[in-house]
Design brief:
Pfam family, one: SurE
Protein name: 5'-nucleotidase SurE
Strand content: 15-25%
Catalytic activity: a ribonucleoside 5'-phosphate + H2O = a ribonucleoside + phosphate
Oligomer: single chain
CATH topology: Stationary-phase Survival Protein Sure Homolog, Chain: A
Keywords: Cytoplasm, Hydrolase, Metal-binding, Nucleotide-binding
Distance between the termini: 53 Å
Order of helices and strands: EHEEEHEHEHEEEEHEH
Number of helices: 6
Shape: globular
Radius of gyration: 19 Å
Number of strands: 11
Strand order of the largest sheet: 3-4-2-1-5-6-7-11-8
Number of domains: 1
Structural class: alpha/beta
Cofactor: a divalent metal cation
Largest sheet: 9 strands, mixed
Length: about 260
Amino acid sequence: MRILITNDDGINAPGLEVLTEIAHQVAGPQGEVWTVAPAFEQSGVGHCISYTHPTMIAQMGERRFAAEGSPADCVLAGLHDVMTDTPPDLILSGVNRGNNAAENTLYSGTIGAAMEGALQGVPAIALSQFYGPDNAQTEDPFEVARIHGAKTVKTLLDKGTWGGEGYQMFYNVNFPPVPAAAHKGVMLTHQGLRRTVKFGVEPHIAPNGRRFLWIKGGAQGEHTGEGSDAGANIDGYTSVTPMRADLTDHAALADLRAALGDVIA
């Protein structure tokens, strides 16, 4: 098996080292793991692509490349340049430093890379490690991902739903903010919503007198309900959420058709 890995924390991020370990376990002794990751941190860029300017790419080692672009750019570079003659069987993105559950999913470059993989027709999984008071200051905050990551990926490859018509499915995996000994298992979930948490800005005046805004998030410990990703993570479970790039609200569309018909006058 050939696996392409990327992330949004950058080529030197510790989570990418964890993902490399996971990918080698999944690929097996005869497999190949190729890395195309951002040269610099790209957190929060979502599914952005560098459509209006070129992306420089440099080889850092055997099957290891850094690209001055977004995670989605890295997937495009991997598929259509680096691995064009030997395309990957699987794309893994992560392991992100911090959760990509609930509303974070919509901002995440980690998710953006997996989404681009799915749009390109390649099975893709995003993996993120939730940080919290029980694991953030431990010797290995990625312990749960490191121990349970490969098994989770293998299970999805063996038993998950892949392919189909239209937008391809990909998976969002979040490991809980607990030590490995407190990990309770894996749970299928839907995307949650932290109703009291919103992104905002914090103004600062630079030494030169210019005004700058820092984007800031909120507390991540809010439980998002039973059956949701962040809720499962806070309860000690790894969450697995099936996703597609289709943003249509199909339930609302059906209701609107019933009320208005297919054509709105």
